Amino acid sequence: MLASLLAIAYIGSHPCAFPMSMRRLSGLIIGLLVLATLVCAYWARTAPTAATVIVDWSTASELDTAGFNLYRSDSPEGPFTRLNEHLIPASPDPLVGGSYAFTDTNVVAGRTYYYQLEDVETGGATTRHGPIEAKAEASGKVMLLAAALLGGALLGLGAVIGWRSFRRQAARS
Question: How many other C-beta atoms lie within 10 A of the C-beta of residue 96?
Answer without folding.
Answer: 11
